[in-house]
Design goal:
With 230 residues, the protein is α+β, with helices and mostly antiparallel strands. The protein has three helices and 15 strands. A six-stranded mixed beta sheet has the order 7-8-9-12-14-15. Strands 1-2-3-5-4 form a five-stranded mixed β-barrel. It has a three-stranded mixed beta sheet with strand order 10-11-13. Helix 2 runs parallel beside helix 3.
Length: 230
């Protein structure tokens, strides 16, 4: 998926109140940017890290700047969680997600007490797919989720298990934004209940998929599937 252009370079000063980030631009000026990410952004929201911002000309916006990417080590990381579903949708429509090639899709599907990211259909097959954006990596080089306790994520896993019990296919899709990741595992030390539910869901037949992205200053795209270790 193409990113907004042009992007403006800067360095992160601090991230605070979840949705705000102070950034020093290359000319030495300081701006406050909207940060579309509800997680802790551990390993990413580090003062001094290079960032890329977009600027909106919409006069109704309180903050014209948006934090788009953060450079962690040698790679850009897409922390913009509002973009995750669109990146996955683009890959699904291009038949780049092998388990769901050839499926028609509908975003934001109401199921139970939730809205699941995608409803997928091919012939008699019906499937639900929930997307999670992953920016955390642990010592073994495995990407992991979540980076903060997520009762909402726990609820989604329960809904996917319910769909399986009704005979649907169901999947959780971890969109791994850390290019150096060699695999994926649940972040048990952060949210042990999510890890427990993910393993229970897998045992019930919920498909657990992890795909790594390639992020550049121009685009974020799904690149390759990586192993899931439960």
């Amino acid at each position: 998926m193409r990113l907004p252009a042009p992007l403006v370079e800067g360095r992160l000063v601090r991230r605070y109140k979840r949705f705000l980030a102070d950034v020093e631009l290359e000319d030495g000026s300081f701006v406050t940017a909207y940060t579309p990410n509800t997680g802790s952004m551990t390993q990413c929201a580090v003062p001094g890290y290079p960032v890329l911002l977009s600027r909106s000309d919409n006069p109704k916006r309180k903050l014209p700047w948006t934090l788009e990417l953060i450079r962690v080590g040698d790679h850009w990381v897409d922390t913009h969680t509002h973009r995750s579903n669109r990146v996955v949708e683009e890959a699904l429509r291009a038949n780049l997600i092998e388990p769901f090639c050839g499926f028609d899709l509908r975003p934001e599907y109401p199921f139970g007490d939730s809205r699941i990211d995608f409803y997928l259909e091919k012939g008699q097959q019906r499937a639900l797919l929930e997307v999670k954006n992953v920016t955390l990596i642990e010592e073994r080089g495995l990407a992991c989720f979540p980076d903060a306790v997520t009762t909402r994520g726990q609820k989604h896993l329960r809904e996917l298990m319910r769909a399986r019990a009704l005979g649907w296919r169901a999947a959780v899709f971890f969109l791994v934004q850390r290019y150096e990741a060699t695999g994926f595992c649940p972040a048990d030390s952060i949210d042990p209940e999510y890890g427990r539910l993910l393993r229970e869901a897998a045992a019930c037949g919920v498909e657990v998929l992890a795909y790594r992205t390639r992020v550049t200053q121009e685009e974020t795209r799904v690149e390759s599937r990586i192993p899931v270790l439960l």
